[in-house]
Task: inverse folding
């Protein structure tokens, strides 16, 4: 590391074995994090290059907090440290998938719920509303 | 629709029943799409306001293609139309989760694979490499 640049050839990008994560204009790459044992989607967050390097080097999930503007080792204050079981990247290498074992109480959301996706969007004649179907 | 603005009160944003999706500076919101029957993560894509409205109104997944710069009804050319079983939103309402039944051959990735996340990132002394653990 640092990570190599993406190949110009799309075929190499999609079918090669070189990891060339694509960071956006803000230097971030999106990451979906699931509970390894269940496959449940816990959260969606962003990593900058440093957070991704730290995650790979330590095997513990690090993110970039956009609201606080700082490197964020998940669990430092909550105890919900995420041990990485597997990391995946998508076809065009601009999205990551982490399968983790979540420490502490096993939750991921700062609202006290296991998953951040605790509300369902339901449509009605009056337009979409949110319902709490988990949590 | 159009969608109402986010409430200033964070508690209302996170604990309320009003759907106020937050679009980024490019007018996009990120969406993780899973196969409803298995929970497998198929793809990650983006919606603009129109794509989100169409998805809610029709019950079929629409995205915004960043590469082509156009509204994209998934499956129009591939037959892999995604019937929405459930839509969820995360705590701060800047990420969506779609659980879908995928039509056609049930795949989602343009490379011919079911999921876009077909490569695993594995670390070694020579740095991270990609392995094809799902085909």
Result:
């Amino acid at each position: 590391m640092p990570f190599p640049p993406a190949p110009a050839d799309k075929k190499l990008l999609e079918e090669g074995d070189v990891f060339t994560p694509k960071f956006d204009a803000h230097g971030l790459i999106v990451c979906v994090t699931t509970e390894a044992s269940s496959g449940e989607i816990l959260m969606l967050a962003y990593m900058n290059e440093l957070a991704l390097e730290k995650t790979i080097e330590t095997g513990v999930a690090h993110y970039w907090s956009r609201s606080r503007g700082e490197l964020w080792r998940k669990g430092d204050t909550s105890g919900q440290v995420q041990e990485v079981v597997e990391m995946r990247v998508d076809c065009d290498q601009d999205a990551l998938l982490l399968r983790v074992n979540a420490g502490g109480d096993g939750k991921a959301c700062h609202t006290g719920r296991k998953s951040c996706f605790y509300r369902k969007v339901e449509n009605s004649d009056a337009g979409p509303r949110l319902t709490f179907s988990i949590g």
Summary: Chain B has a mean pLDDT of 95. The domain at 10-104+116-132 of chain B is CATH 3.10.20.810 (Ubiquitin-like (UB roll)). Chain B has one domain: 10-104+116-132.
